[in-house]
Specification:
The chain has one domain. It is 86% helix and 0% strand. It is an all-alpha fold. It has 5 helices and no strands.
Length: 124
């Protein structure tokens, strides 16, 4: 076995030599060899499954982020539309998309509430 490893150091030949050596051993030694081999395969399968799970988790997270981003974009777009409509209605200078984009969601909601209050008070 040592001679084979020395002459053929490549991992493929070393593994083949190990298999041959295991076949030549006693039943107990063979059982131990097979248990070690099974453990190595199980560990490799576990590592692969873990990597696949991480990739799937990242992709699922990205998709959830895209969905949440779309929903948030729709909400912000609706705020923009309502604000611009009320500004137009009052004859005020309409805010540009860029100006509104610089505002936080809370600021947009406050501006919309002010415009809605102005509309209510105007109709009273």
């Amino acid at each position: 076995m040592d001679e084979i490893k020395r002459l053929l150091p490549d991992e493929v030949f070393t593994e083949a030599a190990s298999v041959l050596e295991a076949v030549a051993k006693t039943p107990d030694q063979k059982r131990l060899y097979e248990a070690r081999l099974k453990f190595q395969r199980d560990e490799a399968a576990r590592a692969l499954a873990s990597e696949i799970s991480r990739k799937e988790g990242r992709e699922e997270g990205r998709e959830e982020g895209r969905v949440e981003g779309r929903e948030e974009g729709i909400e912000i777009g609706e705020l923009f539309g309502r604000i611009k409509t009320l500004q137009w209605y009052f004859g005020a200078t309409e805010s540009t998309r860029e100006e509104l984009s610089e505002c936080s969601e809370e600021q947009l909601k406050t501006l919309l509430k002010q415009l809605q209050d102005q509309l209510r008070n105007r109709n009273v």
